[in-house]
Amino acid sequence: MIELKEITWENFWQVIELKPSQSQMDNLPSNAVFMAQSYVNLKFSYPDACFALYKEAQPVGFTKVVYVPIGAEPYEFPEDTYMIDAYMIDANEQGKGYGRQGFHEVLRYIETKPFGESQTIKLACHDSNTIAIGIYKRAGFQETDQFVGREKRLRIYSKTMA
Fold it and tell me: For 43-72, b where at least 16 C-beta lie within 10 A, e where not — what string?
């Protein structure tokens, strides 16, 4: 089973060293960049949380969840929403079911509404990442016609919370 664990000084460098597959690297900043963005979010009072995804005692992935207030940059969503800003499984750990299991744990965390009320969860994904899109769609996410990113290459997927 995959579990979410806080990033601490004990696991910081292990999480930094996690890398997606080569084909995913072009569409995904490093975990270090996501953690730096987390620091900037603090400055703008955007609540967020970064977690390592663990299989037993070994980190196998990383995620970052942000609470995005209505109209906040860079997304400018029409409602308060939880954004899965990062989700990755290390290239050496892919194909073992950890992506699906870990994503389920991220959704369970968000459904506790740790940062405030919202009825939606969103994420962004490149259209070429068909395996991830399959995981997201099986979890109830639907493709939208919205895009984000510097080059508008990442499509927004959305889910309404129960």
Answer: eeebebbbbbbbbeeebbbbbbbbbbbeeb
pTM of the shown model: 0.90
As its CATH architecture, domain 2-160 has: 3-Layer(aba) Sandwich (3.40)
User: Closest by alpha carbon to 53, among 121, 115, 1?
Assistant: 1
- Residue 3, both tokens: 């579990």
pLDDT tens for the 162 residues of the chain, in order: 999 999 999 999 999 999 988 777 676 778 788 888 888 887 877 899 999 999 999 999 999 999 998 988 878 889 999 999 999 999 999 999 999 999 999 999 999 999 999 999 999 998 888 989 999 999 999 999 988 866 667 899 999 997
Angle formed at CA 53 by CA 36 and CA 21, multiple of 5 degrees? 75
